[in-house]
Amino acid sequence: MSITWELLQATVQRLSVRLPGFAVEYFPEAPGDYRLNHPRGALLVGYGGSRYGAAGNLGDMQAQERLAVVTVTLVFRQLHGRDGAVLALDDVIGALLGFRLPHTTGGLQAKRSRFLGQIAGLWQYDIDFEAPALAVEDVDAEDPSAPLLRHVTRLGPLERTETVKQPSGAITEEDHPL
After folding, report:
1. Residue 36's closest CA among 23, 19, 45, 20?
2. Spatial separation of the C-alpha atoms in residues 120 and 84, rounded to whole Å
3. R_g of the chain, CA atoms, integer Å
4. Which of 12, 101, 120, 139 could form a Cys-Cys staple with 146, CB 3.0–4.6 A?
5. Of the candidates 122, 121, 124, 152, the residue with the CA atom closest to the CA atom of residue 136
6. Residue 104 burial (CB < 10 Å; 0-12/13-18/19+)?
7. Reduced to 3 states, what is the DSSP secondary structure of residue 3?
8. Measured between alpha carbons, how far is 132 from 155 in angstroms, rounded to an integer?
9. Three-state DSSP state, 133
10. Phi, psi for 7 (deg, rounded to 5)
11. Structural domains for the chain
């Protein structure tokens, strides 16, 4: 399965649980045809792209730092008040800030929010969140001489994270203070 798709699925699930008073959907493939059916508003989750850092080697495999951007677009019938888009911005940030998506090396960070305007009578904002991750080369499993990545150590400013693939196939992560 696509790592990027799993990031989006986890974001939709988190917002659905934390903010049940809104419709939570994937960003539509035809945004011009989108129709808001919810009485208050919708949170549309989409992939905003990625930025990549320096490449390095993990044994015989290549790895690269990745900042994946998850964008949440708010589409609301009201701008202000209890049912308005402005109040919902803070709700979305509160639900996602620090939330750790699968395959990432740290929690989501809010990077930017923008007022998109009033379009067809609906108020719209978007918020970009960045998820730090590590992109790792996909080694051909058919090659018996290819090394298998089973253990990754990541150093953060306050902790060391150990990610290990267990013999059962499960992946475990443990954080250790520095």
Report:
1. 23
2. 16
3. 19
4. 139
5. 152
6. buried
7. helix
8. 12
9. strand
10. -60, -45
11. 3-138 (3.30.2000.10), 148-178 (no CATH)
Backbone angles phi and psi of 30, in degrees to 5:
-125, 80
Which residues make beta-bridge pairs with 58?
Answer: 61
- pLDDT score for 77: 95
Question: Is the pTM above the cut of 0.85?
Answer: no
Give the residue carrying structure tokens 């986890």: 10
Residues of the chain with confidence (pLDDT) below 70: 1, 58, 139-149
Give the amino acid at 83.
D
For 115, list phi and psi in degrees, rounded to 5: -85, 120
Residue appearing with tokens 């919708």:
42
Residue 102's identity, in one-letter code, is P
Write the single-letter amino acid at 9: Q
